[in-house]
Amino acid sequence: MLKIERILKSILLPTDFSNNSINAINYAVELLKDEVCEFYVINIQKASSFVSDDLMTMTSSATIYHTLIDIAKKSIKNIIDDVKETYNNNLHQFYSIVDYDNFVDGINQACESRNIDLIIMGTKGASGAEKVLFGSNTARVMQRCNTPVLAIPDGCKFKGVDKIAFTSNYLIKYSNKDLKSLYDISSLYKSSIDIIHVTNNGDLTSSQENNRAFLDAYFSNLKHEFIDLEKADIFKAIQDYIKEKNIKILAMTSRHHSFLERLFTRHLVEAFAFNIDIPFLVMENSNQ
């Protein structure tokens, strides 16, 4: 029997104080309502993004720095206070982090220093364009962070996790660590996992067969099923499947030539056409 240690105990919650980021925080708290968790609410900023005419009148850059940090700390405290009042969950502890750094570097440093299991964030921040599937910060975190990311679309409310879809072309050699966040979430909710393979030709190579067998063994303690979709348009195939089966989370890895990379490299109009309103779970593949 496969033994998986440590179920999602430390969660990083990036916020730019937008409604989208606060919605993602609420989703996270509801997703893990029955788990003992530490939530780290983090805001990362650069002075250039916040310097206004009023701040420019200050004589010291250090004064600007401390002013910005103080404002961010107070804003995070307000978010944490609101969450505590709303959910009143004694299983959850909240901590505030304010950093003055490159966004992805700040996220990676926080993940390392706090031993973060999962990042939960909105798909877009305050300045996210309507016709973009992921905001720039979310996209960079998905592509450049080693820690799994659960990206919550704007307005998406927690409605349970009875069904998860995981996209795979079976070209990837997985490790236990790569898939742990998917395993953990499924374990918490006894979710079924539909492993979706979109193909134009039916035969798998021996390497693909081996990788498929690994997935079968890894998820042996969980309800899972292999689904082959024979369609030319992978994006339409998956979008249709999500809607038809009422999938609650779409999971994928961030390897080259993966579904995620193909999604990022689509033209803007095509990406907007891939319009789903469920969370994306993105996991790094260690065999890059």
UniProtKB/TrEMBL annotation:
Family annotation (Pfam families): Usp (PF00582)
Signal peptide from the UniProt entry: none
UspA domain span: 9-153
Superkingdom in the source lineage: Bacteria
Family: Belongs to the universal stress protein A family.
Annotated protein name in UniProt: Universal stress protein
Annotated source species: Pontimicrobium aquaticum
